[in-house]
Amino acid sequence: MTEFGYTAGGYFVKTTEKYDSVTNIWTSKTDLNVARDGLAGFSLNGYGYAVGGGTTGALNTTEKYNYASNTWAIKNILNTARYDLVGFSLNGYGYTVSGFDTGYSIVTEKYDDSVDIWTPKANVNTGRDYGTGFSLNGYGYIIGGYIGIESKSTEKYDDVANSWTPKANINAGKDGLAGFSLKGYGYAIGGTTGLRSKTTEKYDDVANSWTPKADMNTARAYLSGFTANNYGYTAGGYTGISSNINEKYDDVANSWTPKGTLNTARSYLTGFALDEVSTTITSGRSSFSSRGATVSGGISAGKGKRRR
């Protein structure tokens, strides 16, 4: 299995870049059709997706990335336009959760790529923007975000029951954070508590507990996250300016290492990963019943809201 990381979008940009962890190089790829930040990303059945987001207002746009042809195709729109939303894929379907439209959204939508349709599903308990999410061992999660204050909230989605359940809070309320799952555990990284953060927290779904882990080297908010080849990555973000920083997380050593930088510094971007050898992607139909799925929530500058 050879997995490649991708980042897409960012503050008023269409940029897509591909990361090769073997060569430690980012390569520019075909731009999105629609420039946007605060978008959600996930991979599903061998393709990448960029969903929602906005520039001056919320968008309902869905785009599908084909790595073989290096093209983005416009797909069916969300039912509810949102920016600063969270995305993950779970048991063969894509999901977008929460975000901001005319207020903090509680909407969940499910994407069936076989028919190109988004379907409304059970609402989250707490609407938020700037959150993150991942799928883990057959369930979806949304973490943190902004609800008027920085939130500690974690909720778990059961797609069979179509229900959201509150779970253990993260230790520090944060928005603008990144998330991924790695070897059977979830991670919430960076963001802002009012000040930009470098913290990492690890979620154990069996114990329902969050544990602080090693800090990133550089505090960043509004960054992207993905996993590739058994390591976690955070790329881009906001450090006071848009950043091209990329860091790699080794869960065995519990350490972050600076890696090759993005070609284009960006914040408020999203990320996903694709396995380009077998097209068995890191976030698709078969991945979420096992440990190691990849996902990143969409986060954004906020269309006139505060930027930290």
How would you characterize this protein structure?
The chain is mainly beta and 308 residues long. The protein contains no helices and 24 strands. The protein starts with a strand and ends in a 33-residue tail after the last strand. Strand 18 and strand 19 form a beta hairpin. It has a single domain, classed as Kelch-type beta propeller (Neuraminidase, 6 Propeller). It is globular.
List the helices and strands and how they pair.
Blueprint: E1 3-8, E2 16-20, E3 25-29, E4 40-44, E5 47-51, E6 62-66, E7 71-75, E8 86-90, E9 93-97, E10 108-112, E11 117-121, E12 132-136, E13 139-143, E14 154-158, E15 163-167, E16 178-182, E17 185-189, E18 200-204, E19 209-213, E20 224-228, E21 231-235, E22 246-250, E23 255-259, E24 270-275
Antiparallel strand pairs: 1-2, 1-24, 2-3, 4-5, 5-6, 6-7, 8-9, 9-10, 10-11, 12-13, 13-14, 14-15, 16-17, 17-18, 18-19, 20-21, 21-22, 22-23
Overview in brief:
By secondary structure, the protein is mostly beta strands.
Keywords:
single chain; 308 residues; mainly beta; Neuraminidase; four-stranded antiparallel beta sheet; globular; disordered C terminus
The main β sheet shows up as: 4 strands, antiparallel
Rounded to the nearest angstrom, the radius of gyration is 16 Å
User: Taking strands numbered 1, 2, ... along the chain, how are they ordered across the largest sheet?
Assistant: 3-2-1-24
CATH class, named Mainly Beta
Q: CATH homologous superfamily?
A: Kelch-type beta propeller
Alpha-beta classification: mainly beta
Give the overall silhouette: globular
Count of separate structural domains = 1
Proportion in β-strands? 35-45%
At the third CATH level, what is the topology name?
Neuraminidase
Q: What's the overall average pLDDT, rounded?
A: 91
Q: Helix and strand succession?
A: EEEEEEEEEEEEEEEEEEEEEEEE
Figure out the total of helices. 0
Low-confidence stretches: 278-308
Query: Residue share in helices?
Result: under 10%
CATH-derived architecture: 6 Propeller
Spatial separation of the terminal alpha carbons: 38 Å
